[in-house]
Design goal:
Blueprint lengths: L1 H28 L10 H13 L8 H30 L10 H30 L12 H31 L9 H7 L10 H18 L7 H10 L13 H11 L24 H9 L5 H5 L1 H4 L6 H22 L9 H5 L2 H5 L6 H5 L6 H15 L5 H13 L24 H6 L6 E4 L1 H6 L1 H16 L4 E2 L10 H5 L3 H17 L4 E4 L2 H10 L8 E4 H8 L1 H4 L11 E4 L13 H7 L5 E3 L29 H11 L4 E4 L2 H13 L7 E4 H9 L2
Parallel strand pairs: 1-2, 1-3, 3-4, 5-6, 5-7, 7-8
Bound molecules: iron/sulfur cluster (2 copies).
One iron/sulfur cluster binds next to helix 11 and helix 13.
Length: 683
């Protein structure tokens, strides 16, 4: 009875402290913005795949294997912990023994997992304490973070030791009558003297006390993910990585400008555009920051961080958590409306960090708990651009070019068909066909680079040669093409993006465009994933998937031998690959070319950005120790390729710069997949 009373007291104390912590967090969550949750079926699937199945963790198979075992072990062992709580409250022993065979399964797997988790934790501790693992370091990884990690790992180590100790001593104290199944402990019991049989009580109390302490340490530690990873993954952002979330408040303003007769009357104070302080994030983003395991997988793959820029996606999470703690403490003390004069963007995250991002989504693809870091960066850019007009000068220049010329460069729309010069067949134009009462099956979207960039004009010509060869019924918009708005959007100018997008959608509707083939993966991503938010959907294909269906079956028969002596490597553009999961089509097209093939160290979803995304193309890169384009080109050189194939205008330019930068022009050349096909087919 005394033991029961002590246990109940301890449990009450644990729950009281835990409830206080929960209340603190409820207060902080109340300071954040809304986040809509829909599609529960899809979410449950993601939860099983990513959280329970640990699919992201297995992207690093060796250490991922030990982490997954630890996670699964925790799930099983938690059932045993529940039994201990029931035992403690009722004064009984092994209360769940009545479950029969199921009890044998639970205790048996719990016993085996206790050993597995113990071994895994020893490996994690050795890695953390004695091996110099790069991703455990970084400006954001303060002494406190390391101590936090070591304390939590040590607690788990002690939890497993006490659990095994309890099982071993229980087996020794009642070898024939103990309920359940203990394969590991039965073996270990044979190694210990029978004096350990007196210790079940000691180990039981040690284990349960550790559980109570651990439960109250977790919410203040990076190991909060033990509780939060499953709900965080369940609630994660849905949709392809390339899709940026719309801003309702900006949309309203733009619609009011474009369609004043349909405008709703403004109500109340206008919301802030973008993210300045912790209170501007959604409650889900705050949950992300609490769930972040600080594993550094995101920072480890970040091209900006790899090349010595200040940006670290992990830091975004650590700093958000810290800033919210600071801001909430101030508000709790001085009232909800009090402002302490500090902000997340400014005091914690600098604009230099924000502008270094290439929006490549490598971080988001890697995060084991499905955090989407680029969306925070984008929201901070939105604040800097739309509230402060504080974009870098080159980005402002790009904005005014789009506003004035409908392209990110200083070219007028009247020059948009210049790329067709030199072709020995006419390129059909939508307006001409409409005048003749015709409607082509496909719109071929040339994009600003195809229209104006000398080098990419060749790719546009190659593409129409292929379509002509295949007798595809297509047309281009010609002088009616205008920027999709994507470069403005990725640089934070949502307003300009919307103006461009709504204008273009009107044009598409006027020609009843329902099928679009794009050259550029960024345009492809925008039409496919972002225009539907504005009420326009079409069948959108990047040219590589289109040609994979139409050209490959006939094209593979023609071999000019133009690449016989070459070794071709494909560079995955971020907005084709990671953002939209198109990896196979360009490879399968290149597979028809008579040449050697290679793969870079980082390929497909692991691919390294070329350095141009997120509107980096239009500005100087932030200061670092290296250049992203050079790092990527070096990988291509290292794999022995003589041709780098790409399928994005920005990648083509960056990798060409990379080849020059590395002085490898005599060894390796850059071509677009469409050009390679034309050369191979002798068109
Ligand atoms: S999107 Fe790419 S560049 Fe930006 S933080 Fe993530 S990994 Fe780094
Ligand atoms: S954001 Fe995700 S990948 Fe990055 S440190 Fe946190 S948990 Fe790891």
């Amino acid at each position: 009875m005394t033991a029961q009373l002590i246990f109940t007291g301890l449990l009450m104390l644990t729950l009281a402290v835990f409830s206080w912590t929960v209340l603190t967090y409820v207060y902080r969550f109340n300071l954040t913005g809304p986040y809509k949750i829909t599609h529960w079926g899809k979410r449950i699937g993601i939860m099983f795949r990513v959280a329970i199945g640990q699919s992201r963790i297995f992207r690093r198979p060796v250490i991922g294997f030990f982490h997954a075992l630890t996670f699964w072990g925790f799930c099983v062992i938690t059932l045993g912990s529940l039994e201990m709580v029931v035992d403690g409250l009722t004064g009984s022993e092994r209360s769940f023994a009545g479950l029969g065979v199921l009890y044998d399964v639970i205790t048996g797997s719990g016993d085996v997992f206790a050993l597995i988790v113990l071994v895994s934790i020893i490996i994690f501790l050795i890695r953390r304490l004695f091996l110099n693992i790069k991703r455990f370091h970084g400006v954001e990884m303060k002494e406190k973070s390391h101590i936090d990690a070591v304390v939590a790992l040590t607690m788990i180590f002690l939890l497993m030791v006490s659990l095994l100790g309890y099982n071993v001593s229980s087996v020794l104290s009642s070898p024939t009558s103990i309920a359940g199944n203990y394969p590991v402990s039965s073996f270990l019991a044979s190694l210990f003297s029978s004096s350990a049989a007196k210790l079940p009580g000691f180990f039981w109390w040690s284990h349960i006390t550790l559980i109570f302490i651990f439960a109250n340490i977790l919410p203040y530690s990076k190991h909060f993910h033990v509780f939060l990873s499953i709900p965080n993954v369940l609630l994660s952002r849905l949709g392809p990585l390339g899709k940026a979330e719309p801003m309702e408040n900006v949309m309203k303003e733009v619609k009011a400008m474009l369609y004043p007769d349909q405008a709703e009357a403004p109500t109340g104070e206008p919301d802030r555009f973008g993210l300045l302080d912790a209170g501007d994030v959604t409650w889900k983003s705050y949950l992300d920051s609490l769930t972040c395991t600080q594993c550094g997988r995101c920072t480890d793959v970040c091209p900006a961080n790899k090349t010595g820029k200040l940006l670290s996606p992990r830091k975004l999470m650590i700093d958000l958590r810290e800033r919210m703690k600071e801001m909430a403490a101030d508000k709790m003390k001085n009232g909800k409306d009090h402002v302490d004069g500090k902000n997340y963007l400014g005091e914690y995250i600098t604009s230099e960090e924000i502008w270094a991002c290439t929006m490549c989504n490598a971080c988001a693809r890697e995060c084991p708990v499905n955090i989407n870091q680029p969306s925070l960066i984008l929201d901070m850019r939105r604040y800097l651009v739309m509230e402060k007009a504080a974009a870098p000068a080159a980005i402002n220049m790009m904005f005014s070019n789009i506003e004035n010329n409908g392209a990110p460069w200083q070219y007028g729309s009247h020059d948009r068909l210049n790329w067709t010069a030199g072709l020995d067949f006419p390129v059909p134009v939508m307006a001409d066909l409409k005048a003749q009462g015709k409607k082509p099956e496909y719109l071929l979207w040339i994009g600003c680079a195809g229209a104006f960039d000398d080098r990419y004009q060749k790719v546009a010509r190659a593409m129409v040669k292929l379509l002509n060869h295949l007798k595809i019924d297509f047309a281009v918009l010609g002088t009616e093409e205008t920027c999709t708005g994507d470069p403005a959007r990725r640089a934070g100018n949502e307003m300009l993006y919307l103006m461009q997008a709504f204008t273009l959608i009107e044009t598409f509707k006027s020609y009843e465009v329902s099928k679009i083939i794009t050259l550029c993966p960024h345009c492809f991503n925008t039409f496919l994933n972002e225009y539907p938010d504005l009420g326009y959907s079409a069948e959108v294909e990047h040219y590589t998937t289109f040609l994979d269906r139409h050209f490959k079956p006939v094209g593979s028969a023609v071999k000019s031998g133009a690449f016989k002596e070459d070794k071709i490597v494909f560079h995955d553009p971020c907005y084709l690959g990671r953002a939209n999961d198109v990896y196979q089509a360009p490879r399968s097209l290149l597979g028809t070319v008579d040449s050697g093939k290679a793969e870079m160290d980082h390929n497909k979803s692991f691919s390294l950005c070329c350095g141009a995304g997120g509107s980096q193309y239009f500005k100087e890169a932030e200061k670092g120790t290296g250049e992203v384009f050079a790092a990527r080109t070096a990988e291509a050189v290292a794999c022995g390729a003589t041709v780098i194939a790409s399928s994005c205008p920005f990648c083509l330019t960056m990798l060409t710069d990379g080849v020059k930068y590395l002085n490898k022009e005599s060894e390796i050349r850059n071509l677009d997949v469409a050009e390679i096909l034309v050369m191979e087919a002798g068109l």
